[in-house]
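Recall that a protein's primary structure is simply its ordered list of amino acids. Everything else, from secondary elements to tertiary packing, is in principle encoded there. The following example makes that idea concrete.
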Amino acid sequence: MCQISPTRLALVLLSAASILVAIPAFADSQVRIVRLSDVQGSVQIDKNSGTGFESAFLNLPVTQGTQLKTLDGARAEVEFEDGSTLRMAPNTLIQFSTLGSGQDGKHTSVINLVEGMAYVNWIGKSGDEIGLNFSREKFTLDREAHFRLDTSTQVARLAVFKGNIDVEGPSGQVTVEKNKTATFNTSDDDKFTVANHVAEAPLDGWDRESTEYHDQYAKRNTAPYGYGASDLGYYGAYTNVAGYGMMWQPYFMGVGWDPFMDGAWSWYPGMGYMFVSAYPWGWMPYMYGNWNFVPGYGWGWMPGGWNTWNMQPRYGGGTGVHMHPLVVPTGSVKTVVVGRGGPVSTTAFARTVTAGSVGLGIPRGSLDNLHQLNQEVAKRGYVSTPPARQFAATAARNPSFVGFGDERGGGGGSSTAHISSPSVSHAPAAAGNTVHK
């Protein structure tokens, strides 16, 4: 029998004790990411790495300790795992002080609105909680609510579109009900008044249209996570591929495209580099599941692997001729660009949809039916369209999404012929005056 010296035994026991102590800390760990799901204009991110603020771009993971800042004219959106969203108006600074996961699988988020205005549509699935701090007030939600919150050195306001919110502050507790607004005087001990209405703000239309977009295109999502589902529904479709099962593929794929052509490697403290896709739908397929190359079909994403997210996308099958293998950078903490890079804006639509564009340059909801346009591009190479912006008037009424149980082709084509614009009108939407429900 092997003998262990008392000194070595003590070290082994100490190591085991250290592991046991670490288990609860990891189980309630902060190893959690949420998605920077929309970027319009100049948005900055501080990843708590000690390097300060840097330019932010679509699909960047947001981790505990991150700060996000929108500059003049900029907007941003963050998606949480259940599909809840937080939207930032221009000149807004937000801190994600807590992004934690418990042993029971529930998520806890604590967010500080330092200055500016934010919209939150909290779905509250599975008991997930969010805490909001602003001025010297705070509240916690574990149920559905939709609200607008703004704060400055003089005044703070909470306008509730859906649900009831209990706010605590220096002047006591107040319940702000649906269609009411609480105003806090930050220069007078945060004393509050409650008005029986919600005044329209300039960006309320943007918030409504964003909410409708997510509701419309994510409604058939059967995955356990909701973040990224609406963009998958808008920018692509699922097909039952023989020998593989249900696979998702982006529209306008084209021959020679692979999922790793465009993006960036972004470095995070304690985790290292994570791959960030440049594509507007590029969240869930890069964090979960597996990409596979199927001869005669091309690259497709197979959902799954929901137990943990991937720092590097997983892929398999035969590799295409133009495969861009993933190579993790070393020796630096700076963002490393791949192909056209990560900071790809979708705010200015280029009027042309081509094979191989896979959604780049198409703002959310800006074109009526991408499935139909995909068929045209597959036949002829590209389609010219009128200029459009996010949330064109017809977008929400003509969804192109199919769920896991539906079968619809989504592949692009290799033709190089050119055609003119299809006979479809895509008028920009005007900001409406509909009431939040």
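Residues 209-397 form one domain. The longest strand covers residues 107-122.
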